[in-house]
Amino acid sequence: MNIGLLTLEIFISDSQSLKDKRMVVRSLKDRLRKFNVSVAECEHQDLWQRSTLGVVSVASNPTVLEQTLHSALRTSEEILERNLANYQIEYL
Predict the structure, then answer these.
(1) What is the CATH number for 73?
(2) Buried b (16+ CB within 10 A) or exposed e, 7-33
(3) Domain range holding 36?
(4) Which of 7, 15, 59, 92 would be a feasible disulfide site paired with 3, CB 3.0-4.6 Å?
């Protein structure tokens, strides 16, 4: 069993409230679910402009796992554009 974790650090400079931030985060989470991954906001839940999302996938084949996480990353980059501050991929 192979486990992969994609960590997305997001900075939403245009956000003026938690509602604005939730709208961006919820939209991203909904779009990433098509990759059959689990998505959760892990840090900065109480800040208006920052968020850290954890995207996790489990697969029996490491190649499939890598492709899934890279596809999720590409989609995140397209959606977030300049709001994606940093990312990290880890394999367990």
Answers:
(1) 3.30.70.1120
(2) bbbbbbeebeeeeebeebbeebbeebe
(3) 2-91
(4) 92
